[in-house]
Write a structure and sequence with these properties.
This is EthD family reductase. With 107 residues, this protein is an alpha+beta fold. Helices cover 26% and strands 26% of the residues. It has a 4-stranded antiparallel sheet.
């Protein structure tokens, strides 16, 4: 069975709101989403200052590990209006569901 993930690319609305954005994301949003059916866990990442090929469009990435894609997507869609929101998050975002197809672990 392959592992499936939901990837969310986001940004804070401004540098001044970055702390509030991270506090909301880590303390409120991730726990609410991971509590939904079909979700297993979540991790967050921030783009490094050192990049290949210029500045990325999004500075933050949330990686949600899924138990079941259809269940997770349906639960997120149904629950979206009830999830706690913040004005510290920029409205632009990108969501992508991916499936692990290969892993190389050096010997």
């Amino acid at each position: 069975m392959t592992t499936k993930y939901l990837i969310a690319f986001t940004n804070p609305v401004s540098a001044e709101q970055e702390q509030a954005y991270n506090e909301w994301y880590n303390g409120t949003h991730l726990p609410e989403v991971v509590a939904l059916p079909g979700f297993r866990s979540a991790k967050r990442f921030k783009a490094s200052a050192s990049q290949l090929g210029g500045d990325p469009q999004f500075q933050y990435l949330a990686l949600y590990e899924l138990d079941d894609v259809e269940t997770a997507v349906a639960a997120l869609g149904k629950s979206a209006p009830d999830l706690t929101q913040t004005d510290a998050t920029a409205p632009e975002m990108q969501l992508l569901v991916v499936e692990e197809i290969f892993e190389h672990v050096p010997a």
